[in-house]
Specification:
single chain; alpha+beta; six-stranded antiparallel sheet; 4 helices; 9 strands
Length: 192
Amino acid sequence: MLERSRIWLAAVVVAMLPVLVLAADIEIANPQITANEDGYVVSADFGFELNERLEEAVARGVVLHFVTEFELTRPRWYWLDEKLVSRNRVHRLSFHALTRQYRLSTGGLHQSFDSLSEALRVLSRLRNWLVIDGRAEKPVVQPGESYLAALRMRLDINQLPRPFQISAIGNRDWNLTSEWKVWQATLPAEAR
C-alpha cells in the first residue's frame, strides 16, 4: 500500500511539472487602491529575483525595462466589461561601470544604489502610483462604487538591444513576468 502511494505521488508531481514550469516568476502581494489629494493611487509588493543571465546582462551594461501595468474596469452583464483606466509605468534598471553603481530610473527620476539587491528592493515596492487623476473635469470613476482592478509587472524584452531580443525569444531565462492580479476594488472617498 505504501509503495502504491509513492507511485501515485510521483505521478501527480510529474503531471504538475508543466504547470510549475509555466508559473509566473513575479508574485504580486497586497495590491490596494487608496485616495489622496490628487486622486487614486495604487500600492503593491512584487516578489521576484533576477536569474544569473539577467544579473550578468545588467552587470555588462544592458538596460532592463520593467513595465508595470494597471487597468480598472466596470463589469457589465450585457456586454464586455468597460475599461475605464489603463496606465503603465516603466522602470529602467542599469549598471554604470564608472561609478560602480546600479541605477533605477522612471521618467526623469533616477536613484543610484551600491548593490543590485538594493535596487531590486526598491523596484519590488510600488507605492503611491497615481493611476486616476481626481482633478479631471469629468471623473471616470465614482467613490463608493465597485470596480475590477488589475495589476501586473513584466520585463519588456522588446526594449532590449536587438541581439538580446533574438536570443530572448522562447528563452525562459529572459521571460520574467507576473500573471494579472485582479481584485474587487471599492473606491474610497477622495481625501481633499
